[in-house]
Structures are given as structure tokens and as C-alpha cells.
Amino acid sequence: MAAAAGEVRLIGGWPSPFVLRARVALNLKGVEYEFLQEKFGEKSELLLRSNPVYKKVPVLLHHDKPVCESMIIVEYVDAAWAKSGQAILPADPYERALHRFWAVYIDDKWFPSMFGIAKAQTEEAKAESVEQAWAALKLLEEAFEKLSKGKAFFGGGTIGYVDIALGAYLGWAKVIEQMAGLKLFDEEKTPLLAVWAERFCAHEAVKEVMPETEKLMEFAKMLRGK
User: Where is the GST C-terminal domain (predicted)?
Assistant: First the structure.
């Protein structure tokens, strides 16, 4: 492993896609870390002290120095353990900019439309969110074709920055698919992403930390019951 025990700690919660991003990045780099699970509905003193601005997970503690925000943590892990494993971001400045752009797009466009399906109060609102989600995925399908250069992942031959950004939502995407009775990563609409999603979830760095759909479904029902 690339870190001594106790050197790296991650404050988070198992259902969070943002926490999952940090966990996948650490796994890709072979970094040993302690996972500090926050209790749902509570904020520990360590969390509040480590992230006094947003007071949210995830927070990476490296030698007790906090790093906040999921994709910032991913970049930090890539740089701090640059000699371990494969690079998460490309070395070329333009390529790095492209990967960052699509990661932002995922959070700004894909994430709101996907969760808009679950939050919709009417069939019209649901249909609108579904169309927005599919439109976003169509653009991401095109981005995958360009960024992957014919290989398995957005990052090429291995999981990269955009893979982590989008892949962390796949567990919740499956929940929303079941709840709404539809298919987001459709083999006909986005064939490249449909295959990519299965490949991402089966990756060694992902499969042990990706939440089970059934557990996420139970968690979603609990949230809706509140």
C-alpha cells in the first residue's frame, strides 16, 4: 500500500456518491486509509472541525490536514501519490482541461436531471427530467468516444477523472431506474456508456466500495419516509 496506517483518513458515509469518488481514487492509487463513517443525520466534531465552511462529507485527512470537496480530493490523491498506480488526470494540459470540463458538466447537468426524476411530483415533471437526463447522457456518450480514444474508459485504458465523476452516480442511477421504471444507460440510446457502466462497476477499485442497489433502495425509502 502507498500510505502508512493512520496517515490517511476519510470522513464519509457509505450512501454518498461524493464519498465514493474519494474511495475509488484512493483504491486506484493503492492508498491504505481509515474510513470514518458519519452517522446519518449527525455531524461529528471531527467533521465540523475539518470542514467548517460546508460542514459536509467527504473530507480527506492526510497527516491530519483536511482536503474537502470530492473532485478536489480526487485531484489531490492523484498528485500526492503520483508515483503510485496510474495517473487519474492526463499529463497534457489541454487534455486535463477537457476532463475537468466534463466532470463539471456531470455535476451541473447530469446529476440534477437524474435526481429530478426521483423528485418529480407529476408525470410531466418526471418526463421532462428524463428527457434532460437522456440529452445529457447523449453528450457524454460523444465525450466518451473522444476522450477514451477507443479504449475502455474515459481515462483510456484505465479509470480516470471523468470515469470517477460519472461512475460514482451509477449506484443511485440504478435505484432511480427501478423507482421510475426506466433505463437511463440504455444499450440503444447510449451503447458505449451502457457497456462502460458495467465495466466501471466490475473494476477492482470500485466493486468493493460501490453500494449495493438494494441497500441504496432501502436508504432512499427511508429518506422519502422522513
Answer: 92-219
The three cell numbers locating residue 89: 488526470
CATH number listed for the domain at residues 8-80: 3.40.30.10
Please check whether residue 169 is in contact with residue 136, taking contact to mean a CB–CB distance below 8 angstroms: no
- Number of neighbours of residue 121 by Cβ within 10 angstroms: 7
pLDDT above 90 as % of the chain: 93
42-71 exposure pattern, b = at least 16 Cβ within 10 A, e = fewer: eeeeebeebbeeeebbbbbbbeeebbbbbb
Residue 1 has pLDDT above 70, yes or no: no
pLDDT band (50, 70, 90) for residue 51? very high
pTM of the predicted protein model? 0.96
Residues 6+ apart with CB under 8 A from 32: 1, 2, 3, 4, 5, 7, 8
What's the CATH class of domain 93-225? mainly alpha
**What are the residue ranges spanned by the domains of the chain?**
8-80, 93-225
